[in-house]
Specification:
This protein is mostly helical. The chain folds into two domains: 38 residues; 68 residues, 434 Repressor (Amino-terminal Domain) (Orthogonal Bundle). Helices cover 57% and strands 3% of the residues. It is built from six helices and two strands. A hairpin with a 4-residue loop joins strand 1 and strand 2. Helix 4 packs across helix 5 and helix 4 crosses helix 6.
């Protein structure tokens, strides 16, 4: 970045040109982006997060049911997940189709089986 040239200064304020101000904001944004990237890389290395395919991320962002999407990504059949979670296949189908939200205890078991946080299983709704 070029040296910022204050136009005027006092003990408490510095006046900058618009160009210098915008350049400073851009540099701060880039620094935040680099810090975020370093944090994501550290989380990946520590096993605190995982990478998913772009098409899956888009699917989830577009409102696909997260239980079904993650179950399929983990390679489980509906029957296998229902059995491991101690629920009927019909109940799992209702959760995956959005007909029923699923109880907290059931979603907690499903999250454990799929190695996820419960937040990952809550469908995103439009504000």
């Amino acid at each position: 970045m070029n040296a910022i040239r204050p136009i005027t200064t006092t003990d408490d304020t510095v006046t900058l040109s618009r160009a210098d101000y915008e350049a400073l904001l851009e540099e701060l944004e880039e620094a935040r982006d680099r810090a975020t990237l370093r944090q994501v890389e550290a989380d990946l290395a520590a096993g605190l997060t995982e990478e998913i395919p772009l098409d899956m991320a888009v699917e989830l962002a577009d409102g696909a049911n997260p239980v079904r999407t993650w179950r399929q990504y983990r390679g489980l059949t509906a029957g296998a997940l229902a059995e491991q979670a101690g629920i009927s296949k019909a109940y799992l189908s209702e959760i995956e189709s959005g007909k029923k939200p699923g109880s907290v205890s059931v979603l907690s078991r499903i999250a454990d089986i799929l190695k996820l946080d419960m937040d990952d299983l809550v469908p995103r709704t439009a504000a």
